[in-house]
UniProtKB/TrEMBL annotation:
<feature type="domain" description="Flagellar basal body rod protein N-terminal">
    <location>
        <begin position="18"/>
        <end position="37"/>
    </location>
</feature>
<keyword id="KW-0969">Cilium</keyword>
<keyword id="KW-0282">Flagellum</keyword>
<comment type="subunit">
    <text>The basal body constitutes a major portion of the flagellar organelle and consists of a number of rings mounted on a central rod.</text>
</comment>
<dbReference type="Pfam" id="PF00460">
    <property type="entry name" value="Flg_bb_rod"/>
</dbReference>
<comment type="similarity">
    <text>Belongs to the flagella basal body rod proteins family.</text>
</comment>
<protein>
    <recommendedName>
        <fullName>Flagellar basal body rod protein FlgB</fullName>
    </recommendedName>
</protein>
<dbReference type="InterPro" id="IPR006300">
    <property type="entry name" value="FlgB"/>
</dbReference>
<comment type="function">
    <text>Structural component of flagellum, the bacterial motility apparatus. Part of the rod structure of flagellar basal body.</text>
</comment>
<dbReference type="InterPro" id="IPR001444">
    <property type="entry name" value="Flag_bb_rod_N"/>
</dbReference>
<keyword id="KW-0966">Cell projection</keyword>
<dbReference type="GO" id="GO:0030694">
    <property type="term" value="C:bacterial-type flagellum basal body, rod"/>
</dbReference>
<dbReference type="GO" id="GO:0071973">
    <property type="term" value="P:bacterial-type flagellum-dependent cell motility"/>
</dbReference>
<keyword id="KW-0975">Bacterial flagellum</keyword>
Length: 126
């Protein structure tokens, strides 16, 4: 039987979100710094592809989907080319949108971990 890696995965995403939050806050802090280039981290999808977690069918009735049968949407890489009067590339509106995304992802991550923890506790108690 394979181990359950949900907590490890959630931990990795929380670390990634913390790093992204630091990058975005650095962008906001340097919004008026002349020549500053806005930064962001690589998408979590890329980080996730570097891990060795694989899906496993634990029941023969589970659906079998091979890699060629899954249609994935590629993440769009937005290159910031607009410069403001101080010749930096920070857009406060975009940084606030990214900050909201990070907040929602943190909340979702926490909710999933809490639900999975409750499920595991109820399984152990019964």
């Amino acid at each position: 039987m394979q181990g359950i890696h949900l907590f490890e995965l959630a931990s990795r995403q929380a670390e990634w979100l913390a790093v992204r939050q630091a990058a975005i806050s650095g962008n906001v802090a340097n919004a008026n710094t002349p020549g500053f280039k806005a930064r962001d981290v690589e998408p979590f999808k890329d980080v996730l592809e570097q891990t060795q977690l694989t899906m496993a069918a634990t029941n023969p009735k589970h659906l079998e989907i091979d890699a060629s049968g899954i249609s994935a949407t590629a993440l769009r890489q937005d290159a910031v080319t607009d410069q403001n009067h101080s010749k930096n590339t920070v857009s406060l509106e975009e940084e606030m949108v990214k900050s909201g995304e990070i907040n929602r992802q943190f909340s979702l991550n926490t909710s999933i971990v809490k639900a999975f923890h409750r499920m595991m506790l109820s399984a152990v108690k019964s």
